[in-house]
Each structure stands twice: as structure tokens, then as C-alpha cells.
Amino acid sequence: MQELCFGMVSQEVILLQKALQRQNYYLGEIDGKFLNLTYEALKRFQKEHYLVVDGLVKESTWKVLEPYIEEIKDDNKKVIQTDQEYSIKQLKKDVQKLKYRYPFLQIEAIGFSVLQNPIYGIQLGWGKKEVFYTASIHANEWITSLMLMKWLEEMCESYVQEKLLDGYDVHAILKETTIYLVPMCNPDGVDVVTGNIAKNSKAYEMVQKIAKEYPEIPFPMGWKANIEGIDLNLQFPAGWKQAKKIKFEQGIISPAPRDFVGNSSLCAVEAQALYHFTRLHDFRLILAYHTQGKEIYWQFQNYAPKEAFEIGKCFEKVSGYTLSDVPYASSFAGYKDWFLQEYQRPGYTIEAGIGKSPLPLSQFDEIYKDNLGILLLGTSL
Ligand SMILES: [Zn+2]
Known about the structure:
Layout: H1 11-22, H2 36-48, H3 59-73, H4 88-101, E1 106-112, E2 118-125, E3 129-134, H5 143-161, H6 170-176, E4 177-182, H7 187-193, H8 202-212, H9 240-249, H10 269-279, E5 283-291, E6 295-297, H11 306-319, E7 322-324, H12 335-343, E8 347-352, H13 364-379
The structure holds zinc ion (ZN).
Zinc ion (ZN) is lined by residues 138, 141, 233, 290.
């Protein structure tokens, strides 16, 4: 890179200004002119990065600025790439990049998985009304994580560019509503399915042992549970005992790739994280994303409020999915079941896409298109 000094006017000065602006050193205009504001900002940057404070951009300073400049060059590229399988490693990178590009996002770990992976909770918006969307509570349904992350990016982009998203005014939404996302409730499980757990690790040995007990379920593709073989969507205190009875009768009495209820409700750390996070908030509506079936489940034991059916009908209309009652054998102890029982507010399980989970990435665009209306409408009710 070219050496820069006071008084210069160039494209490189623009890069310098943008890099300093990203880190809140430079608050002036991005005009490519190396004048006082740029000079002072640069000196502050140099001081805090233990560089020689000379107000010159030589190789040593360029080097420290490099990661920021790489980011600026990437500005026009989408962060969320929807042509690759997901993993917690990729989600971590995506979360960092989005936070960097959209500093108004609030990101925290609402808990940690068995393998100590963060269960990310992302907050977007400033409104009084709170809504909550989750994905990948079931491992082989990871395509739903990608869907929520792409939506998050599109929301942020529409917000900063002040443009409509599918006809919605994102500024108005975020003023009224705070959106919470947990895009990957079961990070360890996702990594099992997408082959991101080291084959020589203890964890992999453990899941393989469990999978061998259930040879009829393909491994790793059929894996839905957390890494301990507990089905996280059968962990919630809403008819947990009925769920246990049903699943035990089906022969699932020990850790399994799917359908094992655990030794008690909320015994899995991932389920606990979701439970406590929900308790800390006042969610007006929740969406729990699963695959597959193109169906929307809205009821649990008549706990759903009257409006839940009407809202479900609107979701049906914007997505083309079918509003349905849950089949009896899977109608207990799910996250949305507990939410309905506890709060009597609208809560939905959405079975995105069609086919056999894990759904292929070739379905991604269609899934996103079908669900965009639900995701947006959910924030605006
Ligand atoms: Zn599921």
C-alpha cells in the first residue's frame, strides 16, 4: 500500500478514513482528504495500538489496519452464504461479521451446549413488543438456521439502506418491535449432521455408540437430538410425562438419535437455555422452526388463544403452508407446547420445506421465499 501523509488526497485515504471510522476513531466525512480530522484520528489509533505516533501511514500501520480494510472491501458481499452447509463455526463467523457491519445488533450467548458451544441470542430492534424466533432445535433441520440468518441480514440491510423488505417498512417494525433470534438451538447436533465434529473425538465416539443402537436411523443424517442423545423438543414441561409414555411405548427408552425425552424435563442444558431465556422476556409471539412438511402447528391442548388461529390463517395465506393440528404422537413437551401452556399467546411450530430432513440446499431459496411473509408478519401483529 501507498505511504500516506498529511495533505494527500487519494483513494487510499478513503480506505484509511473508513477503517478508522469503523472503530470510532474518525467521525468526519469520507472524502479522501488527509486533513486535521483524519490526522488526529490516525494518531489516536496509533497510540492505542502501540504504534509509533507519527501521523503517517507506513507499512506498520497499514498492517494493523489490514483486517478492517479487508472487511470494507467485502462490504458489497453478503455475509450469509446460502450455498454451504451450516455449522457452529460458520455461525460464529457470520455473527461476528454481521455485528461488525451492523453494530446495532445485540449478540449474547443465552447458554452453552454440552460441548461448550455458544447458543447465540441475537436482538434486533428497539420496540416494546417482543417476538422470538428459533431454529435448529433439531439437528438435521439446520437449513432453518441459515434461513433465520439470511433474514436477519436482509432486515439489517433494509434498515440501513432505508428500503422496504417485501413491502414492509423495516424502520417502523424495529421501532415497535424487538426481535429475538436463537438461530441454532442445538449447535452440537448440527455439527454431528454436517460432519463438523472430529471423528477421533470422545463426543463423536459417544454419538456413534448411540447411533449403533438404532441401526434403522441413518447416521449422521437422521440425527435430531443433542450430543447426549436427548431430543430437545421433547424436553419442555408441557405434558412431558405423556411424551415419555408415548416414546417409551415406541421403544425409545434410552439416548437415541431422535425421540428420547431425557431422564426428566429440562435436563438438557440447551433446553434449559431456551426455557430461561423465554422466562426473562415477555414474548408476544414465538415461531419455532423445523423441517419438514410445509405445515404450521398452532395448538396445544386448547391453550392457544383465539387470535392464534386467525394469525395462523394469515401465515397460511402468505406462505402457502397448511395450518394443521399436531399428530397425537408428537403433540407433547415441545418448546411451542410449553410456550402456549405457560403464556397462552400465539406460538407456532413451522415445518419448512418438503422431503426428507436434512433438506437439500437446493430447497433453500424456496423455503426462504415461502417463509419471508411469516417472518415479517410475525413482527407486526
Ligand atoms: Zn423438528
